[in-house]
Design brief:
single chain; about 220 residues; alpha/beta; Rossmann fold; seven-stranded parallel beta sheet
Length: about 220
């Protein structure tokens, strides 16, 4: 039997819709690389879009963003309201670089007004990749499904060595201690994670200790 050894043409077997989707994904990644290539040292801050300026999480994220910016660290967020807005607002107050990587949703999440770099993504996974790609540390504030999703993806990436070990700080011990205790008393106790895996997380009460941990990572 004679086999056809000619290379398959690019896109062969793909529908037009699939080819267009691949091009959109590629375009989002390319735009992210081009926009963030010179970002320098950076910390990504995650947390609820529903936090309001009168809440502790908002005020704390704003203070952390300002401290990081004054130390020459870029602040990267999801670009929306709440904790994201607070961290970006603090970064601009500290004369630092404020980056927002927003997501296009059916109910539009508007970009906050404190951004030096403002990008919008169609796909969660390309956006999440960019939120992680350039960060040397992560501050996780109280939040809902999206925040917890981002937290556990980061833990999985570090645990499996797809991401180099780096500070992963949960800010707000009253909020996060229940989750951490569940990991210790239920997940680790049953052997589903190792004891050393718990060292990937640091639970802190406020932005002061969070800033100390994150900036120590960036020190020579």
């Amino acid at each position: 039997m004679i086999r056809d050894t000619q290379p398959t043409a690019p896109g062969a077997g793909l529908t037009l819709e699939e080819q267009e989707r691949i091009e959109r994904i590629s375009g989002e990644l390319r735009a992210g690389f081009e926009q963030l290539d010179d970002i320098g040292p950076a910390v990504s801050v995650f947390g609820s879009a529903r936090a309001t300026p009168d809440m502790w999480a908002y005020r704390s994220a704003q203070a952390l963003g300002e401290r990081l910016a004054k130390a020459g660290v870029s602040v990267v967020t999801g670009g929306g309201p709440g904790v994201m807005e607070a961290a970006n607002r603090g970064a601009q107050a500290g004369d630092g670089r404020s980056v927002g990587l927003n997501i296009t949703l059916p109910h539009e999440q508007l970009a906050n007004p404190y951004l030096d770099v403002d990008m919008a993504f169609r796909y969660f996974f390309t956006r999440k990749f960019m939120l992680i790609r350039y960060a040397m540390g992560f501050a996780i504030y109280p939040g809902g499904f999206g925040t917890v999703d981002e937290l556990f993806e980061l833990l999985t990436l570090i645990q499996t060595r797809k991401l180099s070990p780096c500070p992963l700080v949960l800010v707000g011990d009253q909020y996060w201690s229940g989750l951490y205790n569940w990991l210790v008393l239920t997940v680790q106790e049953r052997g589903f994670i190792d004891t050393l895996d718990l060292d990937l997380i640091e639970v802190v009460p406020d932005e002061d200790l969070a800033g100390d941990i994150l900036l120590e990572r960036l020190s020579p």
